[in-house]
Amino acid sequence: MNERDVDLSWAIFSDLPDEPETRYGAMLVNWNGQTGRTTYDMAQSYRTAAFRLLDEASRYNESWESVDPILFCFRHALELNMKAIHRGPAKRSHGLQELAAHLHERLVGCYRQSQLDWLRDRIREFDTVDPRSTAFRYDDVANANVAPEVWVDFAQLRRIMNAIFSALDKIRLDDFERVGEKT
Fold it and tell me: What is the count of structural domains for the chain?
């Protein structure tokens, strides 16, 4: 695209166009401070973005150039997913450790212990590397307690994240079924 082709007075966030269904874009809402999306909807958005970024990085063999946005999107999707299925008061912190412990405790007896331990341990991995949700966003906040060099195998990352999100989706659906049985 040429700079001459761009209307520089165009706002990034603007009024809804006529016939928005015929345009490429998305409508964001702000109804009295509410987005119109659930925490789970937002988790799904970050999850989709993470997998798409991972696909593109693989397609162009760009692991180094894409690692931070990919890991940030996966980590944030994981955080939002856990918050969406969290029982109790809303969690405003970014730490995954407490969410993972709460989820693990709540699910003991509902699933095989080895599955629960595996899920908790994978979540703890993200928390260990990025406890405050900043390590993949800023260049000067890496966790000093992590080894100086760690490797992320993108093919393995895809498999693990698919398994994690499948497990969290199952937990969410099972929760809905349990709630439905009580009503």
Answer: 1
Tell me, yes or no, whether 121 lies in a domain: yes
Q: Which position has the token pair 């405050």?
A: 132
**Residue 153 domain flag:** yes
Signed CA dihedral, 108, 114, 116, 121: sign only: positive
Q: Answer whether residue 28 is part of any domain.
A: no
155: in domain: yes
Consecutive sets of 10 residues in the chain, 183 residues long: mean pLDDT of each? 74 87 84 85 97 95 90 97 86 85 94 97 94 91 87 95 97 84 53
| DSSP state for residue 32 in the 8-state scheme | T
Confidence (pTM): 0.86
Domain enclosing residue 142, as ranges: 38-182
- The crossing angle, in degrees rounded to 10, of helices 97-107 and 63-85 is 50
Q: Going by C-beta distance under 8 Å and a sequence separation of 6 or more, which residues neighbour residue 66?
A: 53, 54, 56, 57
User: In the block, which residue shows the tokens 């119109």?
Assistant: 36
Query: What is the pLDDT at residue 154?
Result: 94
Extract the tokens encoding 59: 């397609």
Q: At what angle do helices 113-129 and 97-107 cross, to 10 degrees?
A: 170
What confidence score (pLDDT) does residue 125 get? 94
What pLDDT is attached to residue 181? Answer: 59
